[in-house]
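$ run holo --ligand "zinc ion" --emit tokens
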Amino acid sequence: MKGACFCGAVSYEVTGDPTLRAFCHCTLCQRLTGSPFIHTVHFPSSAFSWTHGAPHEDRLDAYAVASKPHKTRWRCKTCGACVMSANAKTGSCSVWGAHLARDDAGKIIDWDRVKPTAHMFYGTRMLDVDDSLAKWEGYENGSARLDL
Ligand SMILES: [Zn+2]
Ligand SMILES: [Zn+2]
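-- output --
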């Protein structure tokens, strides 16, 4: 699947199936994006590659928050959109569903492959979501389930 930042200067491709796809209500995602929750999709880092012109780093800024030094977040130097984070500890990376390529109707292409299966870090939610997906305190299948 292909994705790009807000302005299009930075683009990427991910291959294969995600290892996790969920709505994340954690406080880091909230503060980073200014949104109550975001749609995150995790892949093995080996499945990810930049597709804009090389050297790829010329168009990117990298940074890490003090509480998670093993996690590098990459954002577009031009528009500031954070398009990918790579976790050196787990060997995985995350992209945001909203950046994935759309069809002419504005729908994400191959939606069924990345469609969220859960709400995670729901304990710090800013709003209740009344849908049929499971709600987890932390990671899906790795924390207490809140909707039972
Ligand atoms: Zn951009
Ligand atoms: Zn999060």
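-- notes --
Residues 27-33 form the longest helix (7 residues).
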